[in-house]
Amino acid sequence: MTSVGLQITDQLCFETWEQAGRRLSGFVDSSTWCLGDWLVYGKRHFPDRYQRAIRSAGLQYQTLRNYAWVARRFPLERRRSRLSFQHHAEVASLPVEEQDWWLDQTEQETWTTKQLRNRIREEQVEPAKREKPQDNVVAAAIARLPIASSHLPSWRRAAAHTGIDFDDWVLLALDRAAEQTFDRTTAIPA
After folding, report:
1. How many whole angstroms separate alpha carbon 85 and alpha carbon 70?
2. Which residues contact 67 (CB under 8 A, 6 or more apart)?
3. Domain range summary for the chain, segments of one domain joined by +
4. Is 2 helix (H, G, I), strand (E, B) or coil?
5. Fewer CB atoms inside 10 Å of the end CB: C or N, the chain?
6. What confidence tens digit (pLDDT) does each residue in 50-85 have?
7. Burial, 43: exposed, middle or buried (Cβ in 10 Å; 0-12, 13-18, 19+)?
C-alpha cells in the first residue's frame, strides 16, 4: 500500500484478493470513525486551533463535519462493529431509542445501508407498522412545518452538493443549528 494506491502482484489468488477487499473496507469504515473521534476531541480540547487542524487534514470541511456529527451521536459503547459507519449515519438524526431499534433490525436482517434507508422511508410513510416512543408524535408534527417553496431549491442543491439525502440533510441542518445554539450559549460567561 502506498499513499496513492495499492500495488497488487499478478500472482494473487481470488481468496487472497477477496480477503484484501474485506480488510480494506474495514480500514475505510474504521478511518471514518477515527476521523470523527479526532474532530470531536479537537473541538473540545483545542477550540482555538481546531479549524487549522481541519484544513491540514486535507479533506472537505463538510465531510469532516458529518463524520464528527455521527461520532458525537454514537459514543464508542453504542457503535455496532458488525455495521458500517454509513449504517450509523443513516439513523444518527433519530432519537436514541429509534437509533437502537433500527440498528438492531439491521443487524438481525443483515440490511445494506440502502435497505436500511428504504425501510426507514417506508416506516415514515406507514408509521403504524410498529409502536414508537411518544417523542415521535412531536417529530411527525415538526416534519409538517409550513415552509415557503422558495427555500426548497437551494436546500435541495445544498443536500445534493454534500451527497446527503434531502430529508437527512434537513435533519442534520436542524441538529447543527441546535448544537451551535448551545455552543454559543455555553461560551458566554455567566
Report:
1. 8
2. 32, 33, 35, 36, 39, 85
3. 16-73, 80-137
4. strand
5. C
6. 788 778 878 787 888 889 999 999 999 999 999 999
7. middle
